[in-house]
Amino acid sequence: MKTVYLLFSTILFFSACNSAKTDTKKSILKNETYTIIKLIENNVSSTNMSITFNEETSKISGNTGCNSYFGDYTYKDNTISFSGVGATKKYCPKISKIEKLLLNTLKETTQVYKNATDEILFKNSDDKVVIIAKLQ
């Protein structure tokens, strides 16, 4: 009986430890769309810029305010990198500068965090917040 109890306790202990490890590694990047409200020092909340994450395929998609964009991302423990970022090529002279800034900023992003108000903060390698997005 003691052996059965000891075996049961050991299994229970390891399964509890395993589930705790799984919970701490959950992504803050849900399969949802976020509105980009700040890009570097620019308030872009009126441009309809967005970013959508697909956790299953590790792909992003979104809108630059004019064009659609897409790419791949790698995420682990608040470290993020974007690759293969491309966009459609509609001509939008009023927003082309800010659109290019967004695409270049994504390529330079290295970290991502969620703040107390559930905004997603993207930082570059200098630990500077370069993008702020909120859940749509």
Describe how the helices and strands are arranged.
Layout: H1 2-24, E1 33-39, E2 42-43, E3 50-54, E4 59-63, E5 68-76, E6 79-87, H2 96-108, E7 109-114, E8 120-124, E9 129-135
Antiparallel strand pairs: 1-2, 1-3, 1-9, 3-4, 4-5, 5-6, 7-8, 8-9
How would you describe the overall organization of this protein?
The structure is a single chain. With 136 residues, the protein is of the alpha+beta class. The protein has one domain (28-135): Lipocalin, CATH 2.40.128. 26% of the residues lie in helices and 40% in strands. It has two helices and nine strands. It has helices at 2-24, 96-108; strands at 33-39, 42-43, 50-54, 59-63, 68-76, 79-87, 109-114, 120-124, 129-135. Strands 1, 2, 3, 4, 5, 6, 7, 8 and 9 form a nine-stranded antiparallel β-sheet that branches. A hairpin with a 4-residue loop joins β3 (50-54) and β4 (59-63). The longest helix is centred in the first third of the chain and has 23 residues, at 2-24. The protein is globular, with a radius of gyration of 20 Å. The termini are far apart. Mean pLDDT is 85; it is low at 4-8 and 16-25.
Give a short overview.
Helix content is 26%, strand content 40%.
Domain count, please report it.
1
Span between termini: 56 Å
Topology-level CATH name: Lipocalin
Taken as a percent bin, the fraction of beta residues is 35-45%
Q: State the low-pLDDT regions, or none.
A: 4-8, 16-25
Structure summary, number of beta strands: 9
CATH architecture: Beta Barrel
Discrete helix count: 2
Structural class, judged by helices and strands? alpha+beta
Indicate the radius of gyration in whole angstroms.
Answer: 20 Å
Mean pLDDT: 85
Order of helices and strands: HEEEEEEHEEE
Main sheet characteristics: 9 strands, antiparallel
At the first level of CATH, the class is Mainly Beta
What is the global morphology? globular
